[in-house]
Specification:
- By secondary structure, this protein is an alpha+beta fold.
- Helices cover about 45% and strands about 15% of the residues.
- The protein has helices at about 5-20, 25-40, 50-55, 60-65, 115-120, 130-145; strands at about 40-45, 65-70, 90-95, 100-105.
- A hairpin with a 5-residue loop joins strand 3 and strand 4 (about 100-105).
- Residues about 15-20 have low confidence and may be disordered.
């Protein structure tokens, strides 16, 4: 990699890191990309600190493994497109890796952590069978005369 390209990349990374807040659409698009790569869903959290504390507490492990979380301020105009009809307050929205809304729920309708967990588990991405994914990749590699690179990863 030449020095000019490397310096440009470093400068753009530093600019992104030093920016106080990414715009909501960029954060959501980034989360959608992560969800696609990691077989996850996107969880938009729009609203109060009560639901954020609940999600960062007892449900943090579930969210780490199954969701790419984006927190939006309650005043964000971007969140209005996902707001459920039954609320003007805080809400959760779940998107798939193709940027489609799968579910929305007003925080007022989630009385405790158990109800929130049930909502999140119900809408998590289906787990992939590693043997099927490997067999499909191996079949494609044989057809195209290429090799298969296996990358084992886990969120923990």
């Amino acid at each position: 990699m030449n020095a000019i390209l490397r310096n440009t990349l470093v400068a753009s990374l530093l600019t992104a890191l030093l920016t106080a807040q990414a715009s909501a659409p960029d954060a959501v698009l980034s989360a959608v990309g992560k969800a696609r790569k990691d077989n996850q869903r996107v969880l938009l959290v729009c609203g109060d600190d009560g639901i954020r504390a609940q999600l960062n507490g007892k449900l943090s492990r579930l969210i780490l493994y199954e969701y790419a979380k984006v927190e939006l301020p309650s005043s964000s105009p971007y969140g209005e497109g996902f707001r459920p009809d039954e609320t003007d307050g805080a809400f959760l929205a779940i998107l798939d890796s193709r940027y489609r809304t799968l579910a929305t729920k007003a925080v007022a309708n989630l009385p405790d952590a158990a109800a929130t967990e049930a909502f999140l588990v119900k809408h998590q991405a289906p787990w992939l069978d590693a043997n099927k994914v490997y067999a499909k990749a191996l079949s494609l590699a044989k057809k195209t005369n290429r090799q298969v690179f296996v990358h084992l990863s886990a969120p923990w």
